[in-house]
């Protein structure tokens, strides 16, 4: 029997979408089973959006930028979903990113749907739920999904692994900025945008040049896409349409199908690793584990010997 949310979801009901995402966020076993049924039913209708990940340190202008980009796209007839990944909210119940009030105009736009970060679960759980939320949004007809992450270095890899293209927002004072940005995050970026160009154009131009050089250094010669750097002002809207033009160029140039297939296979591997660990852990003799751990800690055994003692035979 079809899940009762499937039909309204597929016809684009925001209410059904909100309820479906809530269902997928629930940790109750019966809800989880229901959510998996619903996801399996709507899966054939998912996958048709452009998935864009966005990151940047707090204060760089992520919500202002997403609102400007979202309105630009929704006004042009796109259906835009905004999802947030904020591990701080999972840990503390509070959130660095706050909630919907960060994007007041986009929130009330009929072509947009904004969903804050799930407030429970560990980072792995949040990543799973975000993947499911992307699929549910796509099934509800959203053709652009923007996934925002807080830019403090924990969730970026996860978000890059579930999106088609990853955008790093930076500030005009890139000299200081570049040192603060973890090299790992730069390596994930397909596009860097120097935001707040209105506040200091000269610095923004310099920052853009420096970023271009840094990205060039980081990108292998045979990469299918050379990461780009742009300037914009989320406040005035200048440069925002150009960011979208580059997204479209990327979508034309890069083989998204292969990227998504690889992502799905990697996701399978990750889930399998987790499941295998749980199975193994459940079968372990807790007393023996603690003893061996103490032996390793005290230097009576090497770490490799300790693990071998648990896994051999
Ligand atoms: P987030 O923490 O990254 O989401 O940053 P916000 O979007 O909340 O922006 C932080 C502050 O920067 C707010 O006061 C914004 O009004 C301001 N801001 C964002 N984008 C721009 C911009 O392009 N130019 C200027 N001058 N200020 C901006």
Please render the helix and strand layout as text.
Layout lengths: L5 H5 L3 H12 L3 H14 L7 E6 L6 H14 L4 E6 L1 H6 L11 H4 L4 E4 L7 H17 L4 E6 L6 H5 L4 E6 L3 H7 L2 H6 L2 E4 L6 H18 L9 E4 L8 H14 L2 H27 L3 H13 L4 H9 L2
Parallel strand pairs: 1-4, 1-5, 2-3, 2-4, 5-6, 6-7
Helix pairs in contact: 2-3, 2-7, 4-12, 14-15
Would you kindly provide a written description of the structure presented here, covering whatever features stand out?
The protein has a 7-stranded parallel beta sheet, with helices on both faces. The mean pLDDT is 89. The chain has helices spanning 6-10, 14-25, 29-42, 62-75, 87-92, 104-107, 123-139, 156-160, 174-180, 183-188, 201-218, 240-253, 256-282, 286-298, 303-311, and strands spanning 50-55, 80-85, 112-115, 144-149, 165-170, 191-194, 228-231. The chain has 3 domains: 1-44, Up-down Bundle (Single alpha-helices involved in coiled-coils or other helix-helix interfaces); 46-254, Rossmann fold (3-Layer(aba) Sandwich), CATH 3.40.50; 266-311, no CATH class. The chain is an alpha/beta fold and 313 residues long. Strand 6 (191-194), helix 11 (201-218) and strand 7 (228-231) form a beta-alpha-beta unit. It starts with 5 loop residues before the first helix and ends with a helix. The structure holds guanosine-5'-diphosphate. The site of guanosine-5'-diphosphate has 15 residues, from helix 4. Keywords: Hydrolase. InterPro entries: AAA+_ATPase, GTPase_ArgK, P-loop_NTPase.
Q: Which strand order do you get reading across the main beta sheet?
A: 3-2-4-1-5-6-7
Can you write the helix and strand succession as a string?
HHHEHEHHEHEHEHHEHEHHHH
The counted number of beta strands is: 7
N→C terminal distance: 46 Å
Whole-number average pLDDT? 89
CATH domain fold name of the largest domain: Rossmann fold
Return the CATH architecture of the largest domain. Answer: 3-Layer(aba) Sandwich
Number of helices: 15
How many domains, in number, for the residues? 3
Radius of gyration, in Å, reads 22 Å
Binned strand content: 5-15%
CATH superfamily descriptor of the largest domain: P-loop containing nucleotide triphosphate hydrolases
Which secondary-structure class do the elements indicate?
A: alpha/beta
Classified by CATH, the class of the largest domain is Alpha Beta
Helix content estimate: 40-55%
Shape: globular
- Uncertain runs are none
Ligands? guanosine-5'-diphosphate
Largest sheet: 7 strands, parallel
Organism: Deinococcus arenicola
Keywords: Hydrolase
EC number: 3.6.5.-
Protein name: Methylmalonyl Co-A mutase-associated GTPase MeaB
């Amino acid at each position: 029997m079809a899940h009762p949310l499937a039909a309204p979801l597929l016809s684009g009901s925001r209410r059904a979408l909100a309820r479906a995402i809530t269902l997928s966020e629930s940790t109750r076993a019966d809800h989880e089973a229901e959510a998996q049924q619903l996801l399996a039913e709507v899966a054939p209708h998912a996958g048709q959006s452009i998935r864009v990940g966005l990151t940047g340190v707090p204060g760089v202008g992520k919500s202002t930028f997403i609102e400007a980009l979202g309105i630009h796209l929704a006004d042009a007839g796109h259906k835009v979903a905004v999802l947030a990944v904020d591990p701080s909210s999972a840990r503390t119940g509070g959130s660095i990113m706050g909630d919907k009030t960060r994007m007041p105009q986009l929130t009330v736009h009929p072509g947009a749907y904004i969903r804050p970060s799930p407030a429970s679960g560990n980072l792995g759980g949040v990543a799973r739920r975000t993947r499911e939320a992307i699929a549910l949004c796509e099934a509800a007809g959203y053709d652009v999904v923007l996934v925002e992450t807080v830019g403090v270095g924990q969730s970026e890899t996860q978000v890059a692994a579930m999106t088609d293209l990853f955008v790093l927002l930076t500030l005009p004072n890139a000299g200081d900025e570049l040192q603060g940005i973890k090299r790992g995050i730069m390596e994930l970026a397909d596009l860097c945008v120097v935001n707040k160009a209105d506040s200091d154009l000269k610095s923004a131009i310099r920052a853009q040049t420096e970023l271009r050089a840094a990205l060039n250094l980081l990108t292998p010669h045979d990469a299918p896409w050379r990461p780009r750097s742009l300037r914009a002002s989320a406040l005035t809207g200048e440069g925002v349409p150009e960011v979208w033009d580059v997204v479209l160029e990327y979508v034309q140039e890069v083989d998204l199908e292969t990227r998504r297939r690889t992502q799905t296979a990697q996701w399978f591997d990750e889930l399998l690793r987790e499941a295998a660990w749980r199975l193994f852990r459940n079968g372990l003799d807790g007393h023996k584990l603690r003893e061996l751990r103490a032996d390793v800690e005290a230097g009576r055994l090497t770490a490799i010997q300790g693990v071998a003692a648990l896994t051999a035979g």
